[in-house]
């Protein structure tokens, strides 16, 4: 059988040049859906012939249809043809090829399936239903109750009992321990305490404490190497009022950033019930308002300890400010169906050589942080109906910074989540009423249901990535000479299961998110060739396990 099939391709050398290259040879003849004629004729009106090798053996009509979805396909059973017929067929095909008009669609659409949402994992969906706006309300209310969480208050001895940032740190630590108790001690609850030397917003050496909890990868059928992958969610528990050096005055910090801490705690509470392959880290950092000091220390610790940290979600001001409009005729322009996700496009740690490559090839929209942002959008399509991130292709807002930057500076992918429209009367302000306007970052301006939506988006992303087979490694183009195709090679993540597949993704260079997809059904060999020019699109690849959990996308 193979002899005859191979014989055809040997007689049609031109066909190899327009088709896919692969040792597995299939010939497909595809008719536009408008043409109902069975069979093929040269110069048939509306005739579109796609002939060539496919990168996999086409075993079914459905598989061929998925591959060339705009077409009705007809597979020729070449082995059943007589040898003489093969010769006649070959000659006619050659003539036909010469008369084929250019395809109506560009090559990068012909061989594509649209990117579709992955099915929900019932275990993850179940965990998301456990996220509670009431619980978030209690968390934020308790954090506000510490009066001030100004980082400098850690050194003050004259605060009323139960007030100040040290009391807040103790309470967060206790929350993680309680969550751990509920899952049979599944969390390692830790303090990262250090003395910050004098700095611009730190007038004397000051003790800072980051509080965090580690949920080690524990999927029973997962390779131990998979547990080394880590994904982290963080918010800052320090707060401030108008004067960033005021260690005593009220600084409720309900939205900025008790809301983010509530997201970390809520993710820990619901995800600690799952058995995931990779490791999750739930964090509350201090010192953000003094200059990202806590996160800088933790990011450096992660680097020094060799954490294989593949994604950091920084939630800062995710309260969904509820301030009513000043008059009934005004519109607040607030949105409750989305959260902004900011990400860097050029890695903060890119070397001059890497920056040159990014500039030369137009890759400024494809840093690992940007892929992390896209993974959040992807998780939303599966898990958070009616709520989706709004991806912003910049590291942060004008004149602002955040803890994700500390992780970016150590070379980690990290994004920032912030509500749609901030109210600056309720950030970094002394609590007061002036001309009838209430100032201060107070509890009544937080929308707990909105924070719950943000928490679900975080949890869906963390769980999906932690359950996935891990990001493909060493993704490269075969660069042997100039050609109009694209051959990708990659390696599986360490300890990736065998029963996974890969999804090659691509998009137009001006498109914000992945548009097209091609499934490589076998995990090995880790290479694929598509007749699509890498000059015209951006390519990426992700690994997908048998349950549909998708890894982060890696780009060549
Ligand atoms: Zn903040």
Characterization of the model:
- By secondary structure, this protein is α+β, with helices and mostly antiparallel strands.
- The chain has helices spanning 2-11, 13-18, 61-67, 83-99, 107-110, 122-129, 133-144, 165-182, 254-271, 288-291, 293-304, 352-361, 368-383, 403-409, 448-467, and strands at 28-32, 71-75, 113-114, 187-196, 206-215, 229-236, 279-285, 308-315, 338-343, 388-392, 414-418, 432-434, 437-439, 473-477, 486-491, 501-508, 516-520, 527-530, 537-544.
- Strands 4-5-7-6-8-11-9-10 form an eight-stranded mixed sheet, sandwiched between helices.
- Strand 6 (229-236), helix 9 (254-271) and strand 7 (279-285) form a beta-alpha-beta unit.
- Helix 6 (122-129) packs antiparallel against helix 15, helix 7 packs across helix 15 and helix 9 crosses helix 15 (448-467).
- The protein binds zinc ion (ZN).
- Zinc ion binds at residues 236, 256-257, 288, 316-317.
- The site of zinc ion has 6 residues, from helix 9.
């Amino acid at each position: 059988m193979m002899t005859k099939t191979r014989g055809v391709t040997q007689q049609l050398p031109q066909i190899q040049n327009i088709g896919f290259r692969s040792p597995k040879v299939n010939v497909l003849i595809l008719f536009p859906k408008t043409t109902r004629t069975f069979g093929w004729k040269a110069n048939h009106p509306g005739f579109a012939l796609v002939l060539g090798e496919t990168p996999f053996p086409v075993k079914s009509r459905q598989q061929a249809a998925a591959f060339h979805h705009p077409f009705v396909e007809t597979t020729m059973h070449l082995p059943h043809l007589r040898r003489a017929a093969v010769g006649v067929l070959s000659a006619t095909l050659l003539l036909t090829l010469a008369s084929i008009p250019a395809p109506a669609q560009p090559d990068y659409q012909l061989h594509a399936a649209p990117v579709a949402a992955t099915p929900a994992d019932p275990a993850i969906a179940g965990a998301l239903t456990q996220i509670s706006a009431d619980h978030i309300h209690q968390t934020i209310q308790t954090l506000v109750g510490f009066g001030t969480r100004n980082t400098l208050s850690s050194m003050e001895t004259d605060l009323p009992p139960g007030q100040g940032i040290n009391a807040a740190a103790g309470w967060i630590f206790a929350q993680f321990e309680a969550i751990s108790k509920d899952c049979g001690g599944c969390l390692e609850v830790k303090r990262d305490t250090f003395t910050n030397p004098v700095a611009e917003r730190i007038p004397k050496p000051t003790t800072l404490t980051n509080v965090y909890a580690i949920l080690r990868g524990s999927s029973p059928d997962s390779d131990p190497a998979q547990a080394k992958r880590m994904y982290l969610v963080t918010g800052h528990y320090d707060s401030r009022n108008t004067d960033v050096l005021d260690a005593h005055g009220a600084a409720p910090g309900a939205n900025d950033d008790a809301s983010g801490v509530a997201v970390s705690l809520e993710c820990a509470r619901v995800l600690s019930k799952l058995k995931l392959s990779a490791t999750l880290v739930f964090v509350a950092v201090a010192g953000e308002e003094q200059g990202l000091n806590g996160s800088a220390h933790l990011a450096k610790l992660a680097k020094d300890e060799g954490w294989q940290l593949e994604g950091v979600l920084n939630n800062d001001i995710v309260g969904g400010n509820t301030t009513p409009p000043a008059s009934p005729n005004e519109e607040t322009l607030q949105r409750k169906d989305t959260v902004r996700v900011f990400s860097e496009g050029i890695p903060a740690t890119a070397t001059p050589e890497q920056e040159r490559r990014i500039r030369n090839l137009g890759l400024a929209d494809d840093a690992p942080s940007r892929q992390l942002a896209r993974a959040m959008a992807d998780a939303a399509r599966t898990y958070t109906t009616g709520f989706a991130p709004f991806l912003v292709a910049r590291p942060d807002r004008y004149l602002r910074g955040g803890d994700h930057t500390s992780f970016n500076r150590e070379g980690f992918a990290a994004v920032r989540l912030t509500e749609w429209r901030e109210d600056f009367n309720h950030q970094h302000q002394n609590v007061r009423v002036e001309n009838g306007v209430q100032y201060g970052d107070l509890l009544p301006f937080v929308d707990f249901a909105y924070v719950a939506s943000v928490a679900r988006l975080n949890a869906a992303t963390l769980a999906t990535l932690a359950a996935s087979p891990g990001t493909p490694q060493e993704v490269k183009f075969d660069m042997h000479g100039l050609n109009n195709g694209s051959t990708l090679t990659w390696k599986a993540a360490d300890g990736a299961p065998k029963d996974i597949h890969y999804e090659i993704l691509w998009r137009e260079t001006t498109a914000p998110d992945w548009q097209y997809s091609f499934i490589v059904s076998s995990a090995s060999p880790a290479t694929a060739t598509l007749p699509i020019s890498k000059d015209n699109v951006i390519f990426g690849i992700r690994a997908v396990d048998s349950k549909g959990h998708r890894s982060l996308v890696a780009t060549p």
